[in-house]
Every structure is written in structure tokens, then in C-alpha cells.
Request: fold
Amino acid sequence: MVTEQYPSRLLERAVAEFAKLPGIGRRTALRLVLHLLKQKDEEVHAFANSITQLKDEVKYCRCCHNISDSELCDICSNPLRDSSTICVVENIRNVLSIENTGQFHGLYHVLGGVISPMDGTGPSDIELESLVERVDAGGVNEVILALNPTMEGDTTGFYIQRKLSHTNVRLTTLARGVSVGDELEYTDEVTLGRSIAARIELVPRK
Amino acid sequence: MVTEQYPSRLLERAVAEFAKLPGIGRRTALRLVLHLLKQKDEEVHAFANSITQLKDEVKYCRCCHNISDSELCDICSNPLRDSSTICVVENIRNVLSIENTGQFHGLYHVLGGVISPMDGTGPSDIELESLVERVDAGGVNEVILALNPTMEGDTTGFYIQRKLSHTNVRLTTLARGVSVGDELEYTDEVTLGRSIAARIELVPRK
Reply:
């Protein structure tokens, strides 16, 4: 691809910075930068400030490592949440997804990644030791592994299982199966196979 | 749509700022913000600075009103360009598009918009007066109207035509027709109709 000649180095630089963002190509970057250029001075400054301030001032909860404005996040400090259940997730987005279901009332543990030898991420690079410490500290009955069903997610799950084998905590994982609303015809074989193997009793046997 | 509950107000604000950009929804905004949050401090600051610096320091060429780092842009100050031909465009992106074709060697005039009563943009809100002044100053043989084939583009074109009627400058517009590579079957009727009406002699008649 031939790089476009921009009429200004300042424009060139701003476009290059935007194009570094995931999923943003140079054409979209230019569109976004020219949009910002048309906005009022104070709006552009508010945009830039919101990012630097977030980066400079954001904290991570010392308990679950979720993003937070204070030392202890709103979920961990909420006395109405069930502190005996910990849901282990890869990242902050996963916390938001599960919170949006309204089905989980326990606490979280954000690993900040998964074990991935290909990417050079080992067990010590993510928040695994602190998870074991939380469980060892007592008061935890169940640890739910809510990791992605990928090679890396599974590896991380196995590792956590081994690391918690000395405790008598209940270890569970998300149910896998046909998505609600999905047609069987279009469900992939692995998922369909698993959902047959893990079939559910409709009428409990007497 | 239910707004997601973000675990941090700083995060919330940064996501809201990104979501103001055209074509960026809250989900994409969150992905971009979390991506930035994972970058190094200096990279995030470089990102934010590139935007504020662009906004604060960018200039517009006093002749053609294109974006520029100096008083007179690189195109207007280039002695190799043909200053007798002015190509009138709506915005900076159009300059880039035409420059990329490598087919135009004259100068530009960036209107900064088109006449649009619906959006409240009148002739005095765009760089029309300065175009007339440029032509009146002399040395211009041809004005090419390279405006979008929309109601607003056409209105602006007619207005310019009237405003330049006292001069003897040659007024031309972009050729409309079937796109190179397009199949006739899928070309819209208006375009096909125009390209028949404006058909080109293959062998010039003797």
C-alpha cells in the first residue's frame, strides 16, 4: 500500500497514533482525526485529558485486580455480595459481561491474561499466586472458572485446578452447550457433542 | 439499551469520550480504551499529545484553506504546480483523494463544507468569497468543480457558477459515468443515463 501524503506533519502524527489502535486502519484514523479537528478546543482537550487521566489515576482493586477508582473496588467492598464465591476471569471486559447477566452475586478475580507459552505469558505473569492466597486466607467455598474455551484458557484452568488441589474448595466451570436461540443445524460439532455428553435431566428421576 | 455499569468513573468518562467519535459505539470505545490502558505511560501520553497538539498548532493555508503546518501549504508554495488551475473541493479528504490519483497538478480550494439549508450552512459559512477573490486576483484560467454529486454539492456548484459569471474563467466539473471496473448491469440508472448522454467519440470524425 502506498502511504498517503498528508499535507501536515501534525495531522500525519495524529493519524499514525489513531491507526495504532486495534481495528482502526489509516483511513478510519484520518476520519476520526478530522472529526476531532472540527470540534471545539475544549472538547478536544476533554477527549485527550480523559485518556491521560485514566492512564495516570486509575487504580486496580487490591483484592480482585479489577479496574477501580479506589483501593478496593465497588464489588469487593459491597457487603451484599457473596464473598464465599470467586469467579475467575481473564480480563475486565469479562467482569462487565458477567455483571450484565445479573446472575452472579459473588466476587471476581481478574487474572489479567491467561497462560500462553506462545505469547511468553507464564503463570507468574498473571494474578495466579494472589488467587491461591485469597483461597488460602479462608472463607471461600467455590471458585468458578469463567475462562474462554481456548487452548490457553483450558491450560490456565488446569493450572489453577492443580494449584488449588490442596484446598477443599469447590471448583466449577461455565456450562458449555448450544447457545440460547441457536439452531442445532448451525452449531459446531464440538459444542453439540459436549452438550449431548453433558445433557440435563428434564424430569428428575424418582 | 441498558448502559453498562463501569467499575470506574475514569473509565466511564474515557469510554464516553471515545464513543462520541463517528462510527464508534460504546462496545468498541471500551475495547479501544482498555487497549490504551495496557500500553506504556509514554505511549498513552504520546497518543493524547498528538491530538491536542494537532488541534492547538495546526494551521490552514491562507490561500487554499487546506490543512498545513505553515501559512502557505506545500501545494500552494510548490512552484512546479500549475497555479492557473484551481480545483474546488468540499474538504481536506477530497484533496488527499485527488492527490493520490497523481492526475492533477494545479492548486486546490477547500470550501470546508457545502451549501446546505437543512444543516444551516449558507454561502457565507464556507470559503466561497475567498474563491471569488482568488479568481478576481487574476492568473486563473480554469476552475474545476470537484464536488459530490448530491443536492448540496450541485447547489454549491450552481452558486459558484453564478458568482464567477462576471469572469471569463473556464468552469469545468468532474466527468460522471460508469466506474472503471464496474459492470453495466449493476450501474445505477442515473449514472448509466448520464454516461450515455455524455458519450465519448472513440474515433474522432474527420
User: Anything to note?
Assistant: Chain A is about 40% helix and 10% strand. The radius of gyration of chain A is 22 Å.
